[in-house]
Amino acid sequence: MRFLGLTYLGAILAFLYLPIAIMMLMAFNQSPLYELPFTFDLVWFKALAGNERLLTAGWNSVWIALVSSAIATSIGTVAALGLARNEFTGKRFLQLMLFPPITIPWLIIGTAMLIFFFWTGVGRGLHAILLGHVALSLPYVIVVVGARLATHGPELEEAAASLGARPAQAFFRVTVPLLAPGIVAAGMFAFAVSFDQFIISYFLAAPGTSTLPVEIFTAIRKGFTPEINAISSIVIIISMSLVLVVSRFYRFGGER
Amino acid sequence: MPGAEKHLRVTFLVAPAYLWLALTVFLPLAVMLFFSFLTAVPVGGREATLTLQHYVSFFTKKIYWYNALRSLELAAYVTLACVVLGYPVAVILTRMITGRAREAIFLMIILPFWTNALVRTFSWTMVLRGPFDIIFTYPAIVIGLVHAYLPYAVLTIYVSLQAIDERLIEAARALGASKRQAFMRVMLPLSLPGVLAGVFLIFIPVTGSFMEPRILGGKDAIMLGPIIESQFTATFNWPLGAALSFMMLAIILLMLALGYPLLQRHMER
Amino acid sequence: MKMTINRRSALAMLGSAPLLGAMPRLARAAGEIKVLNWQGYGTDEKWATEAFEKATGIKVVHDYFNSEQEMLTKLRTSPGAYDVVLINNIYVMDAAKEGLIQPLDTAKLSNFGDLAPALRDSDRFVQDGKHYASAWVWGLTSFAYNFEKITDKIDTIEALWNPAYAGKVGMRDDAMEAIQFGALATGQDINNPADMAKIKDKLMALKPQLKTFWSSEDEWNKLFAAGDYLVAVYWSGSASRSRKAMKLPVQFVVPKEGAIGWFDGLAVAANAPNPDGALAFINYMIDPSFYIPWDTNVGAPASANLKAMAGLPEDALNRAVLGDAEVVKRVQWMAPVTDQQRQAQQELWDEVKTSFAQ
Question: Do C34 and A35 touch (CB under 8 A)?
Answer without folding.
Answer: no
